[in-house]
């Protein structure tokens, strides 16, 4: 399991560095704002592609969504340290205590402001996943000084 876990963490960190390289190259060519918009759209689209895994729970089975989502994340506890802060009929709040993507960007010695931007871009995957599945989602990604990573607040869809 340790070898598998190390390989999985390495793959996630590699994904993080692909995000960083693509964003960096695009912003050199077309500017930061447009590069960010394109990256966010692309990553949202990737999230939307897996929304079908969670749409059976829409618009309001938040307990079912919680269980399905936590099972869906590979090696969730070790990779992201999810904590279900609240799960009621009105709200599902999940806080992630770690993130291999953020770790990779910090290990690459990127400035905190850049890591914050990349986290916000990467968080679009959750917006696509849960938004397209039929839920309302607020994604609060990592910011300098915060010990935890993403905070997802999911509420029933319309």
Number of helices: 7
Secondary-structure element order, as H and E?
HHHHEEHHHEE
**Shape descriptor:** globular
**Largest sheet strand order:** 1-2-4-3
> Separation of termini?
41 Å
The computed structural class is alpha+beta
Number of strand segments: 4
Low-confidence stretches: none
Question: What value does the average pLDDT take?
Answer: 97
Strand portion: 5-15%
What characterizes the major β-sheet? Answer: 4 strands, antiparallel
List strands and helices in order, with pairings.
Blueprint: H1 2-30, H2 32-49, H3 62-72, H4 76-80, E1 82-87, E2 92-96, H5 100-107, H6 112-122, H7 124-133, E3 136-140, E4 151-155
Antiparallel strand pairs: 1-2, 2-4, 3-4
Helix pairs in contact: 1-2, 1-5, 2-7, 5-6
